[in-house]
Amino acid sequence: MSILGNRVLRREDPKLLTTGGTYVGDLDLPSALSLTFVRATIAHGRILGVDSKDAKRAPGVVGVFTCDDMGLAPMPPSMAFLNQAMARPLLASGVVRYVGEAVVAVVAESAAAATDAAELVVIDYEPLAVVVDPLEALKDETLLFPEVGTNNCFELQFGHDDRFFEGCDVVVRQRIINQRVAPCPLETRAAAALLEGDGRLLFYSSTQSAHGVRDTLASSLDLAKESIHVITPDVGGGFGAKATVYPEDVVTAWCARRLGRPIVWSETRSESMLGLGHGRAQVQDVEIGGTRDGRILAYRIDVVQDAGAYPAIGAMLPFMTRTMATGVYDIARAEFNSTSVVTNTVPTVAYRGAGRPEAAAAIERAMDCYAAEIAMDPGELRRKNLIAADVFPYTTPTGTEYDSGNYVPALDLALEMAGYPKLRADQQARRRAGGSRQLGIGLSSYVEITNGVPEGEYGAVEILPNGKAIVRTGTSPHGQGHHTSWAMLVADQLGIAMEDIEVIHGDTDLVPRGVGTFGSRSLQIGGAAVNQAAIEVVDKARALAADLLEADVADIVLDKPGATFHVAGTPSISRGWAELAQASLERAGEPLMAEVDLPTAGATFPFGTHVAVVEVDTETGQVRLVSHVAVDDAGRILNPLLAEGQVHGGIAQGAAQALVEEFSYDAAGNPLTGNFADYSIISAAELPSFDAAFTETPTPRNALGAKGIGESGTIGSTPAVQNAVVDALSHLGVRHVDMATTPERVWLAIQAARADAGNGTKSRKGAA
Amino acid sequence: MIPASFDYVRADSLDQATGLLERHGDGAKVLAGGHSLLPLMKLRLAVPEVLVDIGRIPGLSYVRDGGDHLAVGALTTHDEIARSPLVGSQLPLLAHVAGQIGDPQVRHRGTIGGSLAHGDPASDLPAVVLALRGTLVLRGPGGSREVDSEAFHLGFLETAVAPDEILTEIRLPKMGELGWGFEKLTKRAQDWAIVGAVAARLDGDGSTAIALINVGPVPARALAAEAALEAGSSPAEAAARADDGIEVSGDLNASEAFRRHLTRVLVGRALEKALV
């Protein structure tokens, strides 16, 4: 019987839950120095002078460095289509462009000494005009890069048609703010660097991509890749924001080479809130047109993406938003326009979903606005417009080819699990009673793209002479459980017990190649590579066994329960994995091993429907999430326990965006939510027990039939919760409430609706 | 998150502690549970020269029956107050509020004395002490003095505790079966109140006291609403005046207008519970 599909417990957990993991900050590196940074305290200003005399004389200080001291070239935006003139210096050079930007590096014998000395550095600024609002930045009146002449760093246009809404009985428009949020992994950014005896640079990194760190360090420091060894110890979360290299990483490596001593950089939470990239940050204008009886004909979305001070992955999120713009619906005409602009804020990066949650949030809000306009049940409107199961592969009007899907059953199951008709009856009863606690029911039917990066992945399986197996993977788990999943895959192919299978990742000397873990790619490409390597090692073993048993290879069978090979029909004479591994070494002089560089066969498209129920206090504006049903389809599920874990965490983060999380600035660019007292990451106390289920529609694009599940929870949940909040207030005339749906926003929306009603006007506008 | 360098002294007695405070003046800060002070120090918003740790001075953690009142030692934690049978029966309002402060970790470290002496208008306990007309006992080098709760909060994070004094005891009149109501709106369970309200029937003249949490820069009573009730207004009418004459601040979580609205709503709800 196969182990696949079973709720296998995470083998990572005993250590993490007992003795604890080993994170970069836990490394015991003899004679290590601590690195910290002096950061910009104003959002935009010319650096007139840096006085570090006192800091250099402070106790324990070994080095104080500015950008000029380092003499390294700025890092251009990592993607060629972003405006390359907006390069980012490793330390601010001449100008600071956001509060929190690193200006001076301070290295000392201890973290305390470095922190004390950093306080002594005096930076003299000439303040420059600040632009925080991306809509203001669009006007190009205040420029972050005057020499470039514009704040625009990336734009897209697609599908314009002057007769776009022809044939539509109804066209509904809505401005939607998909607010800036902070990813907040529990482990903040950290790195350590030292020179090994042979002069190579050993670099420990809290990252989602060990090989990516190696390659970027090599280009930034002008070193050969082979002269850098990157190790990822345990990594306490990344959510996409640790998928790329930060300037502080490069400075850490530079300091180790300059000073010839190990350097540890481990930022504080307050630094991380302004240093780790932020996510989302789109202003969307959506227009949806269709017939009075609920057939969508046309959908247009205009996006202004806030890229933050330096264009990074955040600047290209609209590309992903366009890819997924029309969602699960069969829409004839679609138009997408976007402009990404730089602002005096923390640069935006990938954050759990990265452009797809923004697409889902936009169209799912548009769907509810349309449903309200034609007075149709949101569930019925969705069912009426879902892409039919028999048209896959399906190409959307924005040119995306969906691999497989079966959307109606997921919607039906979610509504059934939620008890939808009864919920609607309860809602009506509460409305009739007229109390201050009103019920809202929100739906979100989503589809998203996983494994969207057109890269393959490395996987290898080696059998040791003792019969145990070693798996090497190019993925870079940071909480996902690959040590469990990959061992399951290999155990299933080889018959070797899971406890005898060791998984190695995140060490560029031990794993020759790798891409990493992001974009919900790992199982379908990295797991599939390991699976393929296991198949190939079985083939090699079968050939060896044929040799040893003096039989035709076609007659050799692997007895998985016994983990032995024998001639079909003669199970008593067999060879085990240990014997075959030894034979390989003796006969061929090489280990029994298979390496696979699996190319990608294309992206896959998980989907599902979420139903959120909220209770809204119409007097205080407070929203309570009462229940949340998630039906997700990520193709074939390898381990339901791990998949549910991803869904639960995703719902928590997605609901958090809808309810409480928001990174705010004042008009001068001062962050208002720079620590966990002010920035509201959600906790279990604010969340109900989730009700999660899967449907399984395999993808033809990998041998496992698997799609990604890492981000679906976030993508499906946010619009469901937001729609539920609006739904709770719809009988009061509210048509939209922006996220986060805080008490004050809800109250303002109710006030505005009452004022509209009082004026006898009908408006679709919600509160700002 | 590393505080600036400071000296640390663990006091074994109140006399030693007040002596240290007298010697170091403004440069010294009293450390009890540390849940307000240490974050400020780590952010380097507070940079004391000396920390005088009173956490292990014996005899400051207790709840005593004082006849018509309960006396609560300053080092009693929120959790101990929430679980005290004596508080539960005689001052159920205090037990209820203490049991909702922050999260379990905060409640196991934070103390009633620390919460009062810090003088944060966003804290819940000052409003309870204000509403119940509590008495605060301060100990200085020259001995102890009693301060009425009305005279205790002087400004934002500013109290009647002199630099060489330590708050040692909080006395609150017993409530027994008298009605009370407590309402707070928080963004998340663990957060400070965006706005909170305490309403309590008082023994003796039968009047009702109302105190507000996180409405203005100082913990305050809703005097206009109290007076309205006194004059015979209904709870709803009184609640409509809850923010009259109150200095109200706006912040990220609530503009001044919304905070005034919340004050009226939550006072109304607290009164409904107190006056059943």
Question: Could you list some keywords that capture this structure?
Answer:
heterodimer, A: 768 residues, alpha+beta, Aldehyde Oxidoreductase, domain 3, Aldehyde Oxidoreductase, domain 4, 3 domains, seven-stranded mixed β-sheet, five-stranded mixed β-sheet, B: 276 residues, Uridine Diphospho-n-acetylenolpyruvylglucosamine Reductase, domain 2, Uridine Diphospho-n-acetylenolpyruvylglucosamine Reductase, domain 3, Enolase-like, domain 1, four-stranded antiparallel β-sheet, 11 helices, globular
Q: Could you say which structural class the secondary elements and strand pairing of chain A correspond to?
A: alpha+beta
Approximately how much beta-strand content do the residues of chain A carry? 15-25%
Largest sheet, spatial ordering of strands of chain A: 3-5-1-12-9-10-11
Shape of chain B: globular
Tally of contiguous helical segments of chain B: 11
CATH architecture of the largest domain in chain B: 2-Layer Sandwich
CATH topology of the largest domain in chain B: Uridine Diphospho-n-acetylenolpyruvylglucosamine Reductase, domain 3
Largest interface: A-B, 29 and 24 residues
Number of domains of chain B: 3
The outline of chain A comes out as globular
Largest sheet of chain A: 7 strands, mixed
Give me the strand/helix succession of chain B: EHEHEEEHHHHHHEEEEEEEEEHHH
- Helix count of chain A? 19
> CATH-wise, what's the superfamily of the largest domain in chain A?
Aldehyde oxidase/xanthine dehydrogenase, molybdopterin binding domain
Number of strands of chain B: 14
User: Could you give the count of β-strands of chain A?
Assistant: 28
